[in-house]
Task: inverse folding
């Protein structure tokens, strides 16, 4: 299975959590990792290149810090630009049929804050629904997300441990993730 990770962090140089996750990914040469903020400093996304990449990979992971209960804006623009009518959905828009998609996000909030009645009122699964529906609307299979909670307070050791679990998660076959 060919895996591509699209990282969307506005500044990986000052990141702790996403940098730890990305560093671990670099130990796995079978995973193709890209940082779209670095690749597109002027936000001028090369749609054809992105679509070509999507065609080449079986599983696509979107990795980003959770910002205002969503993704950073360049990733939203990536969805808007790349998932075009007639290519990703609508008549002739069948290029993503059978692709597996996954989100990996890091949150400042703790896991217990992300539940009904908790500080953030909703679970991460609930808050990720617009992204889930975007990807299923484009005929993709949406797999369970990998979430690193408490990413600001978490120690370096915790983040390194999360990074190991992250790689296991994104390499796991669908039958292990969906049960
Ligand atoms: C603009 C902005 C918005 C944020 N919104 C949220 C949020 O909605 N929920 C949350 O749990 N953390 C939020 N945070 C905290 C980030 O998720 C946290 O700093 C990040 O996951 C840490 O990862 P990093 O070390 O890779 O930057 C926000 C941070 C910023 C800068």
Result:
């Amino acid at each position: 299975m060919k895996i591509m990770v699209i990282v969307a962090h506005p500044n990986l140089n000052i990141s702790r959590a996403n940098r730890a996750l990305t560093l671990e990914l670099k130990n796995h040469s079978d995973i193709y990792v890209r940082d779209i903020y670095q690749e597109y400093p002027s936000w001028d996304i090369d749609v054809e290149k992105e679509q070509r990449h999507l065609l080449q990979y079986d599983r696509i992971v979107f990795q980003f810090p959770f910002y205002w209960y969503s993704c950073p804006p360049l990733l939203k623009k990536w969805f808007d630009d790349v998932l075009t009518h007639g290519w990703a959905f609508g008549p002739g828009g069948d290029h993503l049929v059978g692709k597996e998609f996954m989100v990996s996000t890091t949150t400042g909030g703790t896991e217990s804050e992300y539940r009904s009645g908790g500080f953030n009122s909703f679970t991460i699964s609930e808050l990720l629904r617009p992204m889930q529906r975007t990807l299923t609307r484009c005929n993709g299979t949406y797999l369970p997300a990998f979430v690193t909670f408490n990413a600001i307070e978490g120690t370096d050791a915790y983040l390194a441990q999360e990074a190991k679990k992250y790689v296991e998660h994104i390499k796991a076959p669908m039958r292990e993730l969906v049960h």
Q: What stands out?
A: The mean pLDDT is 98. Residues 9, 15-18, 65-69, 106-109, 151-152 surround flavin mononucleotide (CB under 6 Å). Strands lie at 3-7, 31-35, 59-65, 100-106, 141-142, 146-148. Residues 156-171 form the longest helix (16 residues).
